[in-house]
Amino acid sequence: HFHSTLVKMGLPKMAFHNLRHSCASFHLALGTNPKVVQTLLGHASVVITLQTYSHLLPGVSEEASKNIDKIFT
Questions:
Q1: How far apart are CA 7 and CA 19, in angstroms?
Q2: Which of 25, 38, 44, 63 could form a disulfide with 49 if both were Cys (CB 3.0 to 4.6 A apart)?
């Protein structure tokens, strides 16, 4: 049903698994706690989630620095 629905909607052919990857990617990019994303994906460890999707967490270092700065200012 998935592939026929893609055709009907004029979307490119893709694997059903891509939806899972997209869901995780969107959650992490929007700041959802990685532990929550781990649970949604059913990964045994948050390490697996972060190793797979860590490239989707832009600005994490900058945010961490700003948070530490808040303590001292």
A1: 16
A2: 38
d(CA 40, CA 43): 8
Rounded Cα–Cα distance for residues 33 and 46 (Å): 10
Chain mean pLDDT for the chain: 85
pLDDT at 10 over 70: yes
Characterise 21 by phi-psi region: left (phi > 0), alpha (psi -120 to 50), beta (else). alpha
18, amino acid identity:
N
pLDDT tens-digit map of 52-69: 887 756 666 676 677 778
